[in-house]
Amino acid sequence: MARTPKLSHRMLQQHTDTFIASLGSEETRGTYGRTLKQFLQWQREEAKMFSGTEDVHRYRKYLDKKKKLSPASVATYLTALRRLCDHMVRSGVLPSNPASGVSCSQSTRAHTHDMLSAVEIEKLFSVIDSRDERGSRDLALMRLMVVCGLTPVELIRADIGDITLNGRRGLFSVQRKGHKKKDTVIDLPTDVKRAIREYLTFRSHARKSEPLFESSGNRTRGERMTPRGLRSRISFYLTRAGFVSTAKRTLSPVSLRHTAVALSVQGGATIEQVRQRFHIGTDTTAKLYLNTA
User: Which domain holds residue 39?
Assistant: First the structure.
């Protein structure tokens, strides 16, 4: 087997810049740019050439022991490094991916974000005042997360024209993570369809090409919501409903999607059905929801 060549900080920076530029969406470029910046900083501080799997193990230990990141965050940072190394393999820089055999330890534990119970879900929805446009927007997007299991990125990518309401039926064309087209169409349950219909009464003069969920901030009003802005609104309602994280339970905006997946498992969905419906990459990840359902 060919040995991994030694790469300097400058070479890694160049390949990182090329890799990030090749990514499709602005959100993805931002995420990988932020996480790989940490890797490049570590490598520069180490003042050593990057030379393979042993260095990846040392970087993982650094994230875990020195930076004291959560297992979920370590998994995110290592995934970014693994994708960068894949890019360098395709470019002929590396003979193989030195990060592919390094465990993130995320797959061996349950999700760090807990789900909400049916009673808690109703309480969460009850604290949303949907009589104005912002509250109606928030109720619609949160129902899409809790009932349909959509992610923040999938929601903010949506345009008004992606929603089709014909009589009793409602359809939503979704651009999944990693996809360049809105090629997934989901049926909207009655309560979700009702929330969207009521929200769109405030947007009756909007064009189909306009964002479905617009920001209501003073400086960003009318612009597409950002993932950070969407998560901020959800955190606001979780706090208003009295749901706070404790040493035994972690609640966050991610909990809404986890609730949707766990409820699907409770309803008898198979692992394969869960993977397909919620666009989950592996059986291992999907099986984690068996422990939270």
Answer: 9-90
| Tokens at 50, concatenated | 């990057």
Q: Does a structural domain hold residue 95?
A: no
Q: Give the phi and the psi of residue 173 in degrees, each rounded to 5.
A: -85, 120
d(CA 65, CA 244): 27
What SS3 state is found at 146?
Answer: helix
73 shares its domain with 132? no
Same domain, 73 and 20: yes
How many structural domains compose the chain? 2
264 within domain boundaries:
yes
pLDDT values of the chain reduced to their tens digit, one per residue, 293 residues: 456 788 999 999 999 999 999 987 777 788 889 999 999 999 998 878 888 888 999 999 999 888 888 776 788 888 889 889 999 999 999 988 888 877 765 443 444 458 888 889 999 999 999 999 999 999 999 999 999 999 888 999 999 999 999 878 899 999 987 778 898 899 999 999 999 999 999 999 999 999 999 998 778 888 999 988 999 999 999 999 999 888 778 888 888 988 888 888 777 777 788 787 887 766 666 666 655 55
